[in-house]
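Continuing the series of single-chain predictions for the mutant panel. This is the parent chain; the variants come on the following pages.
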Amino acid sequence: MAQSRLERIGTIFTRVQSLLKSGAVKWEDKPIWYDVYEAFPPKNEPRYDRVAPNIEISDIFYKEDIIRAKFQKEFGNNLRFNIARNDTQSHTQRFISIYQDLEKTGVSGNELWEKALEDFNKENTSFQLKSQLKDEKTSAKETTIKELPPTENVKSNVDLSKIFE
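Parent structure:
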């Protein structure tokens, strides 16, 4: 059994067990998961020919997912976040917390979104969020693109033949 690499011949556990019994693998070199699997075997053995149970998987949505989706749709391309700093919240998470705080005060509807956006912009002085989505009334809100300065033809002093020597 341990000689075959086919998953049909046995489970990984039974193959490792056979290797341990035969001495091909020393007991001190056994995998970390072996003792845990032996102590707590699964209810149903994980075999290739086992039929998957027909269980309906329900969608998991949280209330703030709708806010997050709308925020990312409108402002997602403009946001930059440094994941190396773990002492700050992302812009999306900060906006959601402002939105939820305003929701608790009783503000509702589209006014809630606008007020949360206004408060978020007051809080962040480094940049201001502006929508990029099409309005129902206008064709599109203006977006500004910074133009790069024209590049000059600069010749470098690098000789490619010297690089490959």
